[in-house]
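Practice problem 4.
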């Protein structure tokens, strides 16, 4: 009953949050938000009463069974008297049982409805404090905790920090740092006047309503090219609890629907909501100096203030330890920096110094969970300190055990160390779970309650959801509790098996030495076998949740975790914790230990880099879209193993397992059953990417060359373009070739694309031609914005086999840039240089007008409409592609969170231009049967200058352009395109789709007429 009720409460809370967020439920004044903190206590009391009644009912049932058994075997009364006493006793207790069951049902329903109400109050409380619109303000900023990252202009790393903004006033004009310093002086003057006049609260009532509002925001500051602001660089020196005045740009959180445009599928809205963030704030200007929190909180003497100051002191200790690791950072190699950064992360949970490459390496190896502070870290420190205290008490004051049992002394030390260390590491879900579990298990033993560890774990999961409903949106919550539950379940099942194997001594020879050696070998074999089975069990069990939360899983984790978990758990973490304790007493010794730990981690990084770069094992990612239906089938398949042995036959897992395999296979095949053009988000509004997936049917296979295409099942073309207009000044792209290629590779693999027939870069690159001047002052390969797409092609072609590469414009310097890129890749990957040198790089083909490609049967063809690189004018080099298909092509907006449910792209229907299919009503969802019988055309536009379409129009007048053979004409491009209304009419375009979802000006003017 406990598992059913606990799971039901968590599911109901998740459902309430999901429905409330999707429907945008308005704030209800009848729900008292100030009771949201006391409501979990009421639920806790109801749960305790329910457990007490259920336990009493269980004990009474057992006592009745015992009495029946004893009366049956040890009774001297006649049968008639026994039967009569049973009848009267059972009839008298029957109403009591009915009342108990009704009371249990009412309390259980109350807990479920109370959990739903708590989730609703949590949602309304978050809605009441969130930022609703963008605004520029001047505000007092209070730093909370340590920053998520450090500001570094060299590595292009930004500053991200959780903070509280108060004393908010609208920004009328730009303020300098000196003017913000004046605001600081005025702030202190007002506090002193309030203290001297003893009317602080009267003064605050006269202030504007905006000054009384407080927001908990995520501060952002990123390096800008050509900007070297010392004030922004000093953000790294801000300690937890510091306050300073800033001018900020406040913005609301992006909704989950807007996460559709996130190229990785990461839902930043849910991540920030899970951290109780009300909005984001971009830093504009900061004051020159900060002041401590104590200077402005002289009147706060309540318990909450003391707890806040205690937490601030702990966070300041974390910040000081980071500064200790950050000393002489610039003078160290990248490998040494990242080894120290991982060492710091394993000690305090501070991952601000870890760069993107190291995080990607740990993700590829499947050991990202080792970077977080887990229960192992907390438990190790608690055991070490408890052992040290007990050892000292045994030697110095053993008489204490006369008053307090030894286990209680050890328990008090462990829970104190666990809570302090959990606070020191940020009190994340895994660390908090361990600290609360130590407290709960100790209380269970102290009160002698018959409660299992699994029930304690379930109770903690429900309690954490009650006190913070948005913790259900944190991936760490699910991975932590599910992993611990699986460990407990596996441990209870495997311990009995090991004992049964070693118990019969008659199996071994009687000779003592041989007997001991064989037992030792068997124990080693059983331990290794158990570790492998445990790792395989955890990997398979957590795989659906990992795919559901992150969209991909590394197959390397099954291998690398076998030795990495032991290395981290038994060597690195204990040494790191020992160094942390020594740092308080003997910093020099701590530094020596940290040097050893960093050396071990550095060698581990080299080993993982070598392993993950092996050519035979390069395919390490598993991309399988997982939805709730697949997750439900996984749970049904695992149910016979989760329930007690013998309760349900394990053969019953075969039907859901078979259905699961069929569903996964069908989902993979459904991605390539109909012609589809996916618009891929890139994270840059001017950088566009689209991939065409065209299935090859059996009747379309013909010729020798098409046999390979038949085996693939479909052909795929990738289109890339940079739509930054040449006449408009825009910010350069912050994307890099490494980042963009990684994004595109993940998106393509989730669509089951493992090979590209062709790759087209539709805009020219200034860095590939000798016609335009470039800056090559440095020999280091650092592609600028114009080289972004070609260098992305170079990386993608290394990961996905590509047959053709069309490049707009001239590619005179391609092989030179390719060689320099290759040398740079080899120097950055010295350990796998052999692997890099074996790769062959693709050669570009100039995308010229009338260049074409088609399937042997003509079912699909691509033709370049523009592209005149022979003309000595780069403004006419852009290549516009026309896709002609016998089958209708759907245009979908790729959804990284759920590719199987990618929605239709938003389009503009041009009513002024009728479709070729007569007597049909236009439908944006599906084409009519008559339209499907005729070929369709999609024009993929990438013009960055008006001369492209002007020149095409001149050539079109000289050579008439016939579009009468096509049923439906779709134009796909950017809203900044220079396409004119005459060009739309000449091509008879029926539908307009833009990459950035903004309306095309020419289409609006055409519909207006």
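Answer key:
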């Amino acid at each position: 009953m406990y598992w059913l009720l606990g799971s039901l409460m968590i599911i109901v809370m998740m459902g309430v949050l999901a429905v409330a967020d999707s429907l945008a439920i308005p704030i209800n004044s009848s729900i008292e938000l100030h009771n949201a903190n006391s409501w979990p206590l009421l639920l806790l009391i109801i749960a305790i009463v329910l457990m007490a009644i259920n336990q009493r009912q269980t004990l009474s049932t057992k006592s009745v069974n015992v009495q029946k058994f004893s009366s049956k075997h040890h009774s001297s009364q006649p049968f008639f008297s026994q039967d009569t006493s049973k009848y009267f006793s059972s009839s008298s207790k029957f109403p009591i049982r009915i009342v108990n069951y009704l009371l249990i049902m009412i309390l259980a329903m109350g807990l479920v409805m109370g959990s739903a109400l708590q989730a609703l109050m949590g949602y309304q409380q978050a809605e009441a404090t969130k930022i609703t619109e963008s605004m520029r303000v001047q505000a007092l900023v209070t730093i909370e905790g340590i920053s998520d990252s450090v500001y570094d202009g060299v590595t292009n790393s930004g500053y991200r920090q959780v903070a509280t903004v108060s004393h908010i006033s609208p920004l009328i004009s730009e303020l300098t740092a000196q003017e913000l310093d004046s605001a600081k002086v005025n702030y202190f003057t007002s506090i002193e006047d309030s203290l001297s006049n003893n009317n602080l609260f009267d003064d605050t009532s006269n202030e504007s309503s905006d000054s009384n509002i407080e927001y908990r925001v995520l501060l952002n500051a990123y390096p800008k090219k050509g900007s070297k602001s010392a004030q922004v660089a000093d953000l790294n020196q801000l300690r937890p609890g510091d306050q300073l005045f800033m001018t900020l740009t406040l913005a609301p959180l992006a909704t989950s629907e807007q996460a559709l445009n996130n190229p990785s599928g990461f839902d930043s809205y849910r991540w920030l909501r899970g951290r109780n963030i009300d909005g984001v704030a971009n830093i504009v200007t900061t004051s020159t100096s900060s002041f401590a929190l104590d200077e402005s909180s002289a009147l706060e003497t309540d318990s909450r203030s003391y707890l806040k100051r205690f937490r601030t002191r702990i966070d300041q200790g974390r910040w000081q330890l980071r500064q200790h690791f950050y000393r002489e950072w610039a003078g160290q190699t990248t490998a040494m920096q990242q080894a120290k950064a991982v060492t710091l992360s394993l000690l305090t949970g501070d991952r601000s110094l870890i760069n993107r490459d190291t995080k990607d390496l740990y993700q590829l190896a499947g050991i990202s969970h080792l970077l977080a502070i887990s229960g192992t870290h907390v438990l190790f420190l608690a055991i070490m300190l408890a052992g040290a205290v007990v050892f000292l008490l045994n030697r110095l004051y053993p008489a204490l055990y006369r008053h307090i049992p030894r286990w209680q002394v050890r328990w008090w030390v462990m829970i104190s160390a666990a809570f302090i260390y959990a606070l020191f590491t940020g009190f994340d879900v895994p660390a908090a779970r361990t600290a609360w579990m130590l407290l709960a298990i100790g209380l269970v033993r102290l009160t002698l309650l018959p409660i299992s560890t699994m029930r304690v774990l379930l109770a903690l999961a429900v309690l954490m959801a009650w006190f913070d409903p948005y913790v259900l949106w944190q991936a760490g919550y699910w991975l932590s509790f599910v992993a611990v539950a699986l460990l407990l379940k596996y441990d209870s099942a495997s311990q009995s098996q090991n004992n049964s194997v070693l118990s019969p001594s008659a199996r071994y020879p009687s000779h003592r030495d041989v007997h001991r050696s064989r037992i030792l070998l068997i124990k080693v074999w059983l331990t290794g076998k158990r570790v492998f089975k445990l790792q395989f069990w955890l990997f398979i069990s957590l795989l659906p949740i990992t795919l559901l939360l992150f969209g991909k899983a590394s197959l390397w984790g099954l291998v690398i975790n076998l030795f990495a978990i032991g290395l981290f758990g038994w060597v690195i973490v204990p040494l790191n914790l020992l160094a942390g304790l020594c740092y308080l007493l003997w910093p020099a010794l701590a530094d020596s230990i940290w040097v050893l730990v960093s050396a071990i981690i550095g060698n581990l990084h080299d080993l993982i880099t070598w392993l993950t770069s092996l050519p035979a094992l390069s395919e390490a990612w598993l991309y399988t879209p997982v939805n709730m239906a697949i997750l439900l089938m996984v749970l049904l398949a695992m149910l016979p193993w989760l329930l007690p042995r013998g309760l349900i036959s394990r053969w019953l897992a075969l039907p859901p397992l078979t259905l699961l395999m069929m569903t996964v296979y069908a989902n993979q095949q459904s991605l390539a059953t109909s012609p589809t053009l996916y618009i891929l988000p890139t994270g840059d509004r001017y950088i566009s990417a689209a991939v065409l997936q065209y299935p090859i049917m059996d009747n379309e296979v013909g010729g020798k060359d098409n046999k390979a295409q038949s085996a693939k099942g479909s052909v795929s073309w990738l289109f890339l373009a940079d739509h930054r207009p040449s006449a408009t000044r825009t910010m350069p792209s912050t994307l890099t070739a490494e980042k963009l290629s990684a994004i595109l590779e993940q998106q393509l693999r989730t669509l089951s694309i493992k090979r590209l027939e062709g790759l087209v870069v539709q805009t020219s690159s200034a860095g590939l031609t000798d016609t335009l001047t470039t800056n090559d002052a440095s020999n280091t390969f650092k592609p600028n914005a114009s080289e972004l797409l070609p260098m992305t092609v170079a990386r993608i072609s290394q990961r996905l086999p590509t047959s053709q590469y069309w490049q707009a414009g001239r590619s005179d310097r391609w092989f030179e840039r390719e060689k320099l890129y290759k040398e740079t890749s080899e120097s950055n990957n010295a350990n796998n240089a052999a692997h890099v040198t074996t790769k062959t790089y693709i050669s570009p083909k100039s995308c010229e007008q009338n260049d074409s490609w088609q399937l042997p049967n003509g079912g699909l063809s691509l033709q370049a409409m523009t592209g005149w690189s022979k003309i000595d004018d780069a403004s006419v080099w852009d290549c516009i592609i026309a896709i002609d298909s016998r089958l209708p092509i759907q245009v979908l907006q790729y959804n990284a969170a759920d590719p199987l449910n990618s929605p239709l792209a938003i389009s503009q229907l041009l009513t002024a231009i009728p479709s070729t299919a007569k007597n049909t009503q236009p439908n944006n969802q599906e084409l009519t049967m008559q339209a499907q019988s005729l070929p369709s055309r999609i024009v993929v536009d990438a013009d960055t200058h008006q001369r492209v379409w002007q020149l095409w129009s001149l050539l079109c007048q000289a050579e008439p352009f016939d579009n009468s053979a096509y049923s439906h004409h779709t134009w796909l491009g950017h809203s900044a395109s220079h396409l004119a209304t005459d060009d739309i009419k000449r091509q008879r375009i029926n539908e307009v789709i833009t990459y950035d979802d903004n309306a095309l000006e020419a289409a609006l003017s055409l519909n207006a007429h």
